Amino acid sequence: MYTEQSFLSSSEDPKCISGLGCWYSNLFQVYNVTKFLEDHPGGDDVLLSSTGKDATDDFEDVGHSESAREMMEQYYVGEIDPTTIPKKVKYTPPKQPHYNQDKTSEFIIKLLQFLVPLAILGLAVGIRIYTKSG
Ligand code: HEM
């Protein structure tokens, strides 16, 4: 099972309107390739390494066939303005509540850990002195 994986591609074809001329779109095309990962002839690892970023060069460098370009259409999600993509979001975990608020019991345990062996030692020495003198 794959989690949702998409990559971006900048428009290669200029958009043309007769009389107005052509211009290149500054928008990115988004492709969700989750369902294609297992079937991609180039393997899922190359696809995965191209997700979450502009994969135009990765895609073009391979020299994909016309049929590959046609296949792309079924994974097309829509266009996105790259300036609206948030920069890398740094994850800061939510502050955890501090459970052991009561430090008293911790202190008592530490004190007992120190006092109990001391008491046993004292008792042993006491018995020894008492039995010797007897
Ligand atoms: C939805 C997007 C994509 C589709 C539909 C697609 C489709 C295909 C197809 C049909 C092939 C077989 C060869 C061909 O017909 O050209 C192929 C090969 C390949 N693709 Fe993709 N591909 C996509 C995206 C990518 C991306 C982003 C990469 C990133 C590097 C990539 C890398 C490769 C590689 C390395 C091969 C193997 C080329 C070879 O062995 O000759 N593909 N792809």
From TrEMBL:
Q: Indicate the segments forming the Cytochrome b5 heme-binding domain, all copies.
A: 1-81
The cross-references to InterPro entries, in alphabetical order and at most eight, read: Cyt_B5-like_heme/steroid-bd (IPR001199), Cyt_B5-like_heme/steroid_sf (IPR036400), Cyt_B5_heme-BS (IPR018506), Cytochrome_b5 (IPR050668)
Its localization reads: Endoplasmic reticulum membrane
Q: Which GO terms describe its cellular component?
A: endoplasmic reticulum membrane
The UniProt keywords, alphabetically, are: Electron transport, Endoplasmic reticulum, Heme, Iron, Membrane, Metal-binding, Transmembrane, Transmembrane helix, Transport
- SMART domains recorded: Cyt-b5
Instruction: List the transmembrane segments.
Output: 111-131
Q: How does it sit in the membrane?
A: Single-pass membrane protein
Q: A Pfam family for this UniProt protein? A: Cyt-b5
Predominant location: endoplasmic reticulum
One example of the protein's molecular function in GO is: heme binding
The record's family statement is: Belongs to the cytochrome b5 family.
UniProt-recorded name of the protein: Cytochrome B5 isoform B
Q: Which species does the entry assign this protein to?
A: Arabidopsis thaliana (Mouse-ear cress)
Q: What is the lineage of its organism?
A: Eukaryota, Viridiplantae, Streptophyta, Embryophyta, Tracheophyta
